[in-house]
């Protein structure tokens, strides 16, 4: 039977890695991710987790070591965020291009300059096109669950792709929450032993990911894209199986009180729970508003998004990252693209806020919704505004 434990969310990630029985962890500490890998190092040192823990000199080295361990068939885990995620950026493409099923927790953090250790989604958006499956979480239980699901998804024989589990830095990573820690026997039923079909063997030397001339590079990238898009079906099946075993269900796009709502707010990550309170308040006041939460970021859930918003008049996308010099935030740009050729669609507006760890309260989200509706009515260009910026 699962144990309910009051625990820092970062430590719960370490517990999930232990239950997944990871073989190798290569990581470099960086705020606000540090507690994740510190706890795993402690579990290894205490003999609670039988794994090789590799302390490296940088995040670039961390991901490089993960490439090697995954390539020989070891269940591999790491964690990073912000500047560290950027330092390993070039290696991320190798992990996905070589079909190495690494799982990485990312405690989202703002990118410099100016220097910030606090959270937003600028690091996520900087790595969105690296070919990794990417999933967002809203609370500690979801983080714990998603790490377990990530191994199931990544290691599926029809996928074999790396997975990032995103959690908001500090707003979520350092929170102490009640979390159900599942029994090892139940996790073992859900997560089968890892059997990598492409494992390197010194007795049968091969070359992988080597120089590709123009005559095959496009075909390789096309195959990678087809595989990533096809992973969505496996992700949905993994979530369904998780719900069957543990009773908690997840979906690519999740709606909250959207019935009859003419105006929808869209959020990602831990701020979604504050947004839910706002929707409750405004609904109680008789306002027809609802919330749509984007959980699956890559592959992008186009069909699920279209279905979730088709009856709304206005969709306000709340971005926690800037696309500097662009027409909208990165999430809003994706949403507009997904809805572009639909006959029945809402008018999409964009509010950007929560940058560098700045909070957005219930009252703040109410203002965001009201401003988003005014933008839609005004039809101004560009159709986005910054929230909470002091003039």
Please give a quick description of this structure.
This protein has helices spanning 9-19, 34-45, 59-71, 82-87, 89-97, 122-126, 140-154, 184-190, 214-246, 271-284, 302-309, 330-339, 362-378; strands at residues 3-8, 24-27, 52-55, 76-80, 103-108, 133-136, 163-168, 176-181, 253-256, 263-267, 289-294, 296-298, 314-319, 347-352, 384-386.
Write the layout of secondary structure elements.
Elements: E1 3-8, H1 9-19, E2 24-27, H2 34-45, E3 52-55, H3 59-71, E4 76-80, H4 82-87, H5 89-97, E5 103-108, H6 122-126, E6 133-136, H7 140-154, E7 163-168, E8 176-181, H8 184-190, H9 214-246, E9 253-256, E10 263-267, H10 271-284, E11 289-294, E12 296-298, H11 302-309, E13 314-319, H12 330-339, E14 347-352, H13 362-378, E15 384-386
Parallel strand pairs: 2-3, 2-4, 4-5, 5-7, 6-7, 10-11, 10-13, 13-14, 14-15
Antiparallel strand pairs: 1-8, 6-12, 9-11
Helix pairs in contact: 1-2, 1-7, 3-5, 7-9, 10-13
Give the CA-CA distance, first to last residue: 54 Å
Number of domains: 2
Helical coverage, percent range: 40-55%
- Tell me the structural class: alpha/beta
The strand count comes to 15
**Mean pLDDT level:** 96
Query: Low-confidence parts lasting 5 or more residues at pLDDT below 50?
Result: none
CATH class call of the largest domain: Alpha Beta
Helix and strand run: EHEHEHEHHEHEHEEHHEEHEEHEHEHE
What is the CATH architecture annotation of the largest domain?
3-Layer(aba) Sandwich
